[in-house]
Design a protein that fits this description.
Layout (H helix, E strand, L loop, with lengths): L1 H39 L13 E6 L3 E7 L8 E6 L2 E8 L5 E5 L7 E8 L2 E8 L10 E8 L1
Antiparallel strand pairs: 1-2, 1-8, 2-3, 3-4, 4-5, 5-6, 6-7, 7-8
Amino acid sequence: MKLKTTTLLTTLLFTSLSITACCEKPAEDAKVASAQTHAEHSHEGHDHSQMDLTEYTCEPAMDIKVHYVPVTNEHDATAHILIDDIEYDMYLDVSASGELYRTETGLTEGNGLIWHTKGKDALLESFDIAKPHDQASIKTIASCQKN
């Protein structure tokens, strides 16, 4: 009986580790791609008029427009957020409710951005990139509503 229990626990442990490794890798790849894309992307002269942009009204007043790219077989879902005409490329992250996009490139050095939407409401938040999932490091920048 002890051997069966040990075998079962070992199997569960390896299955859990495999699932965790499987599911975390795309998010890590997306983080690296987001940071590299932003660093290499030339924003000057970039024409966003051809994009399908969703506009938001925010408090405090900010001009925020978002181009959402849905998940496909070739890539994960992303959001290209224009904040006062500066583009931030974000990857979809895990959210308990709504959709949450994240990038390690922020408005200030050492901080990343979170764009969290639910229905017509959205929050623009910053976080300390040294502590990306520390709730105490997350600060609300703006509260927004879809136009």
